[in-house]
Amino acid sequence: MSGFSTARLKMVDGQVRTTDVTDRRILDAMLMVPREAFVPASRQALAYLDLDLDVSEGGAAKRFLIKPALTGKLLQAAEIDENDNVLVVGCATGYLAALVAKLARQVTATETDSALAAKAKDAFAAIGLSNVTCKAAACADGDSSAAPYDVIVLNGATEVTPDRLFGQLREGGRLVGVSAESRPSRAMIVTRSHGEFGYRPLFDAAAPVLPGLERAAAFVF
User: Fold this and answer.
1) How confident is the model over 35-88, as pLDDT tens digits?
2) Integer distance in angstroms from the first to the last C-alpha of the chain?
3) What are phi and psi of 157, to 5 degrees?
4) What superfamily does domain 3-204 belong to in CATH?
5) What is the pLDDT of residues 26-37, one digit of tens each?
6) Cα–Cα nearest to 175, from 211, 194, 200, 195
């Protein structure tokens, strides 16, 4: 077993299973998808650590792969079906979208940094994924061209209500991510039913805020 394969197994056993992620499909996906393939070469040694991993390379804003444990818990909460059409928002280099592609029928991923979006496309091709696409787009905008979605997953936190994303959910669809609109920040699931949106907190969680989903700066005298 290679060094990365061993690290991947330790990540799943030591970080993900221990946080009550029990869905076999998610665990298998995390064992199969090589996280190091979505990390710059200079930081691949950090690929399986329990941290939000900075994958930006001189871009306008830092971009991250969120912690493995949080990744697994959000995916479990999303209850992605093999026939689902899924949107991954703020995918950075595409690791979360690659995991979702192992669970869903079709995946659309968006990323604000066009250079990182290109890296995500290259990584998808390198590991043989054909049911996921990545587009350069603002996090708040989503991608209406492939909507409506059964599931929307945020690769990070939002400090505002992402109304445009809510509008791209199918009836019965759900959005999962970290809400940092108040403190403490929490993982949330939002479901659409009869045109209304219901919110349910899942657990306390912290993640980097996605660009474009930050709270507006307050005026200071």
Assistant:
1) 999 999 999 999 999 999 999 977 567 899 999 999 999 999 999 999 999 999
2) 60
3) -115, 160
4) Vaccinia Virus protein VP39 (3.40.50.150)
5) 999 999 999 999
6) 200
